[in-house]
Fold:
Amino acid sequence: MAFGSVKEIFDRIPEVFNAAAAQGMDAVFQFNITGEGGGNWHLTVRDGTFQIQEGNHENPSVTLTMSSDTWLSIVNREANAVQAFMMGRLKAGGDLTLAQRLPSLFSL
Structure:
């Protein structure tokens, strides 16, 4: 399935959450999506559960910042997140090992 908007991705995240992969985890993922249709969301993952909220978290474990075009390309599997990071199109701060766990937590 191809996603057409950033909001659609975040709306669908509850449907693709893998609770088993989140067992024992306590982390906050902050997404700062810039450009047209962007926004800020944070996902709080705590021991097999998660919550998604629009806006900024005061103390995220990892922060991912990218344009809406880059985020859509990554989620739609048109671009690789590691390559986007290496090319400077995706900026990450905080615990980068948590960012690497996102595909196992949310199978978009």
